[in-house]
Amino acid sequence: MFTGIIEEIGEIENIDRGSQSAVLHIRCQEVLEGTKIGDSICVNGVCLTVTTMTSNSYTADVMAETIQRSSLGTLHRGSRVNLERAMPANGRFGGHIVSGHIDGTGTLMRITRDETAVWYQISAGADLMRYIVEKGSIAIDGISLTVAKVEEDSFCVSIIPHTQGNTTLSDRRVGDIVNLETDVIGKYVEKMMKPADSVRESRITMEFLAQKGFL
């Protein structure tokens, strides 16, 4: 599990591309402290396993499914990436629950600035928008952010200067593809409310939730 609080910006040193998969060689420093082979590091929001390590870099395999569902296939030598180690059991929970299993991608539509922040408007498909709510949480390229505004096919986030300067958001341009992971809680609630194929009748109803004080 991750929190969406980026620890370090790494750099793609090399990519070994197969017919459908790839191996990323990532140069970094901070996230290697205490890390061992087999550990998980979130790369632009995607949970990947460390396969080899040096004093200032590591490698991670990216399977075909991940390339198809994320923006990792667009990376190239020199690309900067957001990095976060898995959350330790005794660590601070500064962001929100991030699994590193992204739901899909969005497209950056507009970047505007106001007095203290930068606004990003991102379009996404209906399958993702259904889980995105105003003032809810979302991970964009692994960054824990609060949804500031929701429209039919897009949403906006407002970025403070600290986040802008300590993540790859400052690299993003209109038209770029970003990885999106919606709030996991909403997906589980939906699953409980509507059991697959109606195999059994759900006991979780709106009336039940109201009686228990959730509404």
The largest sheet, given as strand count, sense and whether it forms a barrel, is:
6 strands, antiparallel, barrel
Query: Radius of gyration in whole Å, from Cα?
Result: 18 Å
What portion of the residues fall into strands of 2 or more residues? 35-45%
Dominant shape:
globular
Number of helices: 5
Number of strands: 12
Oligomer: single chain
Helix share, percent:
10-25%
String of helices and strands? EEEEEHEEEHEEEHEHH
Topology:
Blueprint lengths: L7 E10 L4 E6 L12 E4 L2 E8 L3 E6 L1 H6 L10 E6 L18 E10 L4 E6 L2 H4 L7 E4 L2 E8 L3 E6 L1 H6 L10 E6 L1 H10 L12 H6 L4
Antiparallel strand pairs: 1-2, 1-6, 2-5, 3-4, 3-6, 4-5, 7-8, 7-12, 8-11, 9-10, 9-12, 10-11
Describe this structure in words.
This protein has 215 residues and is α+β, with helices and mostly antiparallel strands. Helix content is 15%, strand content 37%. It is built from 5 helices and 12 strands. It has helices spanning 64-69, 126-129, 161-166, 184-193, 206-211; strands at residues 8-17, 22-27, 40-43, 46-53, 57-62, 80-85, 104-113, 118-123, 137-140, 143-150, 154-159, 177-182. Strands 1-2-5-4-3-6 form a 6-stranded antiparallel barrel. Strands 7-8-11-10-9-12 form a 6-stranded antiparallel barrel. Strand 9 and strand 10 form a beta hairpin. The longest helix has 10 residues, at 184-193. The two termini are 28 Å apart. The model has no long low-confidence stretch (mean pLDDT 92).
